Amino acid sequence: MIKRNRTLLLIGCMLLLLSGCSKPEAVDELLDKVGLGEDSAKETLTMDDVDSSARDCEWIEENSDDCFEEKKHSKYAYKQLSEKEKLWYKDINTLLAYRYDGPLKLDEEGLKQGLDEENVDKIYNAVMIDHPEYFYVDGYEYTVYTRGEKTVGIEITARYTLDKESCLSRMEEIQEAAEDILYYAPETDDDYEKIKYVYETVIYHTDYDMEAEDNQNIYSVLVGDVSVCQGYAKATQYLLNQMDVECSMVYGQVRDGEYHSWNVVKSNGDYYHLDTTWGDASYSVETDGAASGTTPQINYDYLCITTDQITKTHKIKEVVDLPVCDSDEDNYYIREGNYFYEYDTDQLDEVFYDAYDAGSEMVTLKCDSKELYDEFYAKLVDEQQIFEYLYEEYDSISYVENEEQLTMTFWMTK
């Protein structure tokens, strides 16, 4: 390895984790805004007074031409429901998949088995969690029919942001953009490599912008190239589902109580948390005032991490039960050989060599403990031993540190 002997400028910057996608509010209120809370309007009427014109699920399927449901979609939320809840999941999914305008009558068998209006919101949310392709849905309204004190019927009507013709046009744009991305995807059975590809592609492909149009759905990412956390997460889910990787949505809060969304993904048999928004360094990194140069665009701290790791910075709001993610076998740092159990100069040399060999100007590493992290920082930064790994053509090294995740990222500049 060719190394410089002369002194170079070391540029340091602290990793400042920005908050979520909105101003601080109660998480339930925030979920309302994205169709994952009590985002509904209710009306109660008696069966004796109303002549309902609602259709059932079977009628919609038989009389509608266009279905927006992707053949490859997540069924994670569906699997977490009880058998009786699945009855209404099928109904609501049919309503949204065919973008049906009129009211739909929920299966009366659900009422007989004990479901009531309190179950509607959870089941609607489960459908939305499983289907990022329903980019045109903006909540729902429902009517409860009673006879005396007994509920004898429930009808649900969806709210849409676009007419059907516009939905079809946008769906074509989405599918074309997704095909372009998937064309370059690795041909492998290794889920980790697929997840890494989508993680990197979404981040490189998208600019974080709170003012982006359609920023709560996949259109903003795949077609518009600008979005916020919900758009990142839904696009990540959509692409991974097309690659036969199980991926679902997670909602919650980050520091200061701000709303945020990310993913849970199944890689080679184990579940992990995945946050492409926080992986975009343009969103999650601020440089110190003295720093200069360009920060790396991608941050791998949130590529396949455990529940313990994600909950250091994220608070989960469980719409349905989520898996405990306790495996680290497909964590980025372990898979890439950048996880350190001790201060090993040979391993450091190999990590930097592999980066140079791959044409990368960035190296990121993770320490097994806070004590080891402090040792790395003291030796590489304070004692400037990092310069021992600098190739001749580079003039300086910049770094980003994330003490919460025990990671450091170094990138070389010319």
Overall shape: it is elongated
Relative strand content: 15-25%
Structural Rg: 24 Å
Largest sheet: 5 strands, mixed
Which parts are unreliable, with pLDDT below 50 for 5 consecutive residues or more?
A: 1-19, 285-293
Oligomer: single chain
Strand order of the largest sheet: 1-15-16-14-13
Distance between the termini: 18 Å
Question: Kindly state the mean pLDDT as a whole number?
Answer: 85
What is the tally of beta strands? Answer: 16
| Estimated helix fraction | 25-40%
**Derived structural class:** alpha/beta
Secondary structure tally, helices = 16
Number of domains: 2
Explain how this protein is built:
With 414 residues, the protein is α/β, with parallel strands linked by helices. It has two domains: 260 residues, no CATH class; 128 residues, no CATH class. Helices cover 35% and strands 22% of the residues. The chain has a five-stranded mixed beta sheet with strand order 1-15-16-14-13. α4 packs across α6 and α8 packs antiparallel against α10. The N terminus is likely disordered.
What's the structural blueprint in terms of helices and strands?
Layout: E1 9-14, H1 27-33, E2 40-46, H2 57-63, H3 76-79, H4 83-97, E3 104-105, H5 108-112, H6 120-130, E4 137-147, E5 150-160, H7 164-183, H8 191-205, E6 207-208, H9 218-222, E7 226-227, H10 229-242, E8 247-254, E9 258-267, E10 270-274, H11 276-279, H12 281-284, E11 303-305, H13 307-310, E12 314-317, H14 332-335, E13 339-340, H15 345-357, E14 362-367, H16 370-382, E15 396-402, E16 407-413
Parallel strand pairs: 1-15, 2-4, 6-7, 13-14
Antiparallel strand pairs: 3-5, 4-5, 8-9, 8-12, 9-10, 10-11, 14-16, 15-16
